[in-house]
Every structure is written in structure tokens, then in C-alpha cells.
Amino acid sequence: MEINLTVHTTRKRRALLFVEKISSELLSFSMCFFGAIDDAPEWKQPGIRDDELDEFICLLISLYRELKFSVGGLAIEEDMKGLFDVNKVWPNEKYNFVNLTFKDNLYKFQAILINKSLNEKLSEGQYTLIDNSCMLYRNA
Question: How many domains does one find in the chain?
């Protein structure tokens, strides 16, 4: 499913929300924004500047507070399916939390939010506890 959105951060942005069933147990929600650093006046889209990343991390945290998802991330040209150690086309039952891994792909994300119940999946690192129920990793 693909849904057109308008998201109001400091600047109003158009986005696409993709909802995909990646296994019988998991849905993937991907919200895609125009991601260039520069604005695109011809498309009437603001780019995402480095100083705006905190706004998107706050958006991720706000979404978690409302939806209580298991894992969420903020990345450029990457999505959450990339965190699964699976080389299969989805939907596929291999997309499950047993195959969730951060070891090789964490660097591709500016931020990862993970429910505390999955904290054994995290390697050692700098994490911030959010609402006593999830952990936030920020790439330096």
C-alpha cells in the first residue's frame, strides 16, 4: 500500500508512506521524504539539512509513543528490511526478529529506536532510554 502524506516539521514536507507485509507476523512502514540536502524548487520540496535531523528523530520518537512498534529507524536510502539477515524476496517467513541484526548495517542509519524487549539484539554502544520502554541509538 502506498499513501501520500503531508508532514509538518519546521517546514511542510510531502512524503510517501509504504506499508508492506514482509512476513505473516511483520509489517514494514516506510515514510519516504525528498532527501537531498538542497531544496528542489521545481518539485516544491525542501531538502533535509543536517540541522534538521533532530526533528526527524523527534518524529520517530513521537510515532513510537503512538504506535509502540518494535523497531524503527531513520536512514537515507535504506529501510528497516536491511536490518534483517535475510537474502530473500519478501514476504518471507525469514523476516522475523530472530534474523534481526544490527552488526553490519547500523552505520547506514542516523538513528535506530528499538523496543527494550529486543535489547539483546543490540551490541555495546551509546543508547538513550526513552520512556523506559525503548532505546535510541544515534549515529555520531
Answer: 1
Range of the domain at 34: 2-138
d(CA 25, CA 133): 21
For the ranges 40-44, 69-73, 126-130, the lowest mean pLDDT is seen at 40-44
HSE (side-chain half, CA atoms, 13 Å) at 70 = 14
Cα 49 to Cα 15, 35, 39, 71, 102, distances in angstroms:
16, 9, 9, 24, 25
Task: Fill in the amino acid letter for 55.
Answer: E
pTM of the model: 0.87
How many Cβ atoms from other residues are within 10 Å of residue 133's Cβ? Answer: 12
Residues constituting the chain: 140
Query: What is the pLDDT at residue 4?
Result: 94
